[in-house]
């Protein structure tokens, strides 16, 4: 299913807030994802914070296609004012077009627009650290969280902005298209895979990679490429060209996790979509993840996640 992605560019938008997520989605599209990028604006030729103007943007439409993503980059400095004409127009438009099937993604100060539109009421959210107090004033019913690079709550996602818009885009790509595609996008963008440990349901394909040790990365690459294979510690150590004992030390030191735990989390992430859909018998799903039995799968899931298996009983 193709996903329409609409960027809304207000006058004074931050170019990196726009270009980072747009480039991540463009690369994902080239690698096989079904994203269709569109560019909207309440102004005919909005000028970004760097003084460059964009042409050929579409006006804000009366409605959006089903299951669209709506991405709003932040605004620079004094331009991050929800009372400006363009901001007021965008806030009114958001109230008009918002539906539960849409996904709203705010970058940096764009959370102020969503808050003023009432879309953050009852939801967890965040924004740039300098704007947290302002967001709390605009959206007193929202649960504004400090010191978070991004927050996902249902169909609404928000980030601290600037480079964290790329982090959020990678997480959304992972959830929509699978973690392996998101990792391929991150590699092509040559980004440091930062992730907030408190963000729920982070993919282990992307987590535990914020280090620079090449041997550990080689092992992680091999596990991600073939999660269902048998991976005894000796086989992993052979890829790293170190002893099993030394590999365990390297993993703990640089990735912050034991090799076995990392492998199990990769296995679970690999088959989680199958568990949610539950279109196959549990034994076959377990086999697809490299588990010896459904009982083994249940045991490892409870160990790593602390909950019962998702999907139908």
Describe this structure in words.
- The chain is built from twelve helices and eight strands.
- It is of the alpha/beta class.
- It folds into two domains: 3-182, 3-Layer(aba) Sandwich (Rossmann fold), CATH 3.40.50.880; 208-313, Arc Repressor Mutant, subunit A (Orthogonal Bundle).
- The strands form two sheets. A six-stranded mixed sheet has the order 2-1-3-4-8-7, sandwiched between helices. It has a two-stranded parallel ribbon with strand order 5-6.
- Helix 1 packs across helix 6, helix 5 runs antiparallel to helix 6 (179-189) and helix 10 crosses helix 12 (294-305).
- The two termini are 28 Å apart.
- Keywords: Transcription, Transcription regulation.
Structural class: alpha/beta
Percent range for β-strand residues: 5-15%
Q: What fold name stands as the CATH topology of the largest domain?
A: Rossmann fold
Low-confidence stretches: 194-201
CATH class of the largest domain: Alpha Beta
Count of extended strands? 8
Number of helices: 12
Radius of gyration: 21 Å
The N- to C-terminal Cα distance equals 28 Å
What would you say the CATH architecture of the largest domain is?
A: 3-Layer(aba) Sandwich
Shape: elongated
Q: Mean of the pLDDT scores?
A: 90
Sketch the topology as an H/E string, one letter per element: EHEEHEHEHEEEHHHHHHHH
| Largest sheet report | 6 strands, mixed
Count of separate structural domains? 2
Give me the side-by-side strand order of the main sheet. 2-1-3-4-8-7
Q: What is the share of helical residues?
A: 40-55%
Write the layout of secondary structure elements.
Blueprint: E1 3-8, H1 15-30, E2 35-40, E3 69-72, H2 85-97, E4 103-107, H3 110-116, E5 124-125, H4 132-138, E6 143-144, E7 150-153, E8 156-159, H5 164-177, H6 179-189, H7 214-225, H8 233-240, H9 244-255, H10 259-277, H11 282-288, H12 294-305
Parallel strand pairs: 1-2, 1-3, 3-4, 4-8, 5-6
Antiparallel strand pairs: 7-8
Helix pairs in contact: 1-5, 1-6, 5-6, 7-8, 8-9, 10-12
